[in-house]
From TrEMBL:
InterPro entries: AAA+_ATPase, ABC_transporter-like_ATP-bd, ABC_transporter-like_CS, ABC_transpr_LolD-like, MacB-like_ATP-bd, P-loop_NTPase
PANTHER family according to UniProt: ABC TRANSPORTER RELATED, IMPORT ATP-BINDING PROTEIN
GO molecular function, one term: ATP binding
Gene3D superfamilies, per the entry: P-loop containing nucleotide triphosphate hydrolases (3.40.50.300)
Source species of the chain: Pseudonocardia xinjiangensis
Record-linked PROSITE patterns: ABC_TRANSPORTER_1, ABC_TRANSPORTER_2
Pfam families per the UniProt record, alphabetical: ABC_tran
First and last residue of the signal peptide: none
Domain of life: Bacteria
Keyword vocabulary terms for this entry: ATP-binding, Nucleotide-binding, Transport
Name of the featured protein: ABC transporter ATP-binding protein
Amino acid sequence: MGDGPARPGVDGGAAAPGAVRHAGCAAVTGPLPPGADLRAPSRHLRPAIRAVDLVKVHGRGDAAVRALDGVDLAVPAARFTAIMGPSGSGKSTLLHLLAGLDNATSGQVLLGDTELGACSDAQLTALRRDRIGFVFQAFNLLPQLTAAQNIELPARLAGRRPDRAWRDTLVGLLGIGDRLTHRPTQLSGGQQQRVAVARALLGRPEVVFADEPTGNLDTASGHELLHLLRTSVRELGQTVVMVTHDPVAASFADEVVLLRDGRVAGSVPDPRPDSVLSALSALSGARAGI
Ligand SMILES: Nc1ncnc2c1ncn2[C@@H]1O[C@H](COP(=O)(O)OP(=O)(O)OP(=O)(O)O)[C@@H](O)[C@H]1O
């Protein structure tokens, strides 16, 4: 491996099962301290998150579906990675496993040195709260809380005092400083999603997972949101993993990882909408045996 950041599905992605050294769930360390530099070199020495020979079978018996069939993937830190593939290729399943929202049938997910499969439910809950950020298609804001309260909710649930200086930096970056006392129903969809992004970034998570984050937004708001996610990567050193069906959305990423039939089928570095479309067409052609 060179000195640059690891690449998805390439550096570290081909590790043999069992070859990955890790510290079990003991490495659950909580969020970075206030003022910590997300771009510190030590954060970039290894992938932010890895999947090793990851298999997920949904259901049992005749109804069993092998949604992931041996995924090897290394997501580099401080990069914006998009996951794409045909419907049913396993994108959502992979995102859920990487984010500790579901258990693997076999294989490993490593967040830093923490193997998620070694974590108890309580440890996974703490890990999701402290080390991972989420941005969903449905903004998932609590309607009775103001924007500011929604942004600070995860920190408060964890019993931590929110880092107000960092919150103000994020709020300024996201352009929602004059909306903090509004409730979600008083905000546009784009503003609600920006509140959700601020909430996801406030805890300085090691990885932000975004699942079709522009799905409920108009084109302009969607592009703004994608710019903001990209800015969080470029300027704050955030690691972002996004599932999307949209080649334009994917073109905001540094790299697109392609899934087909539950396996990594390739990647598109420095994606543009046309290169992503070609890669997707080639995938569908290969699938149809063309
Ligand atoms: N809870 C479940 N029970 C049974 N099968 C499931 C379950 N969740 C997903 N699957 C199946 O697993 C496969 C992968 O599904 P998944 O949702 O991960 O794909 P996807 O690429 O995200 O699809 P889409 O683009 O349509 O959202 C599909 O065949 C799907 O029907």
